[in-house]
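Why does residue order matter? Because the sequence determines the fold. Keep that principle in mind as you read this record.
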Amino acid sequence: MPQKDSDGYRLLGGQRISFEILGSPGEQDVVSFLQIQFQKIGVDVKYAAKGTQPESTYLYPSRFDLTLHGVTFSLSNVDIMYPA
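Structure:
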C-alpha cells in the first residue's frame, strides 16, 4: 500500500505527490477535470497561469511540471517540452 497523508494524498519520500499544470484562463475547466481525476488516485494537482509569454517564462527554461497546449508538435519543435 502506498503511504498517504491525512487528506488521502500519496506520499513520496514523506512529501505529498503534487504538480502544477500550466494553462490559460480558458483551460481552467480542463485543469479542474484533471484535478478531480488525479485526486481519485491520490495525486495533488494545481492550476498555474501561463501568463503572456509562457515560452520564455516556463518552457524554454524547463520550469513546468505539465502544460496544456493547442499546438501539434513535430520533431522540429517537440524539444521545448523536455526539461533542459
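The first strand starts at residue 11 and ends at 12.
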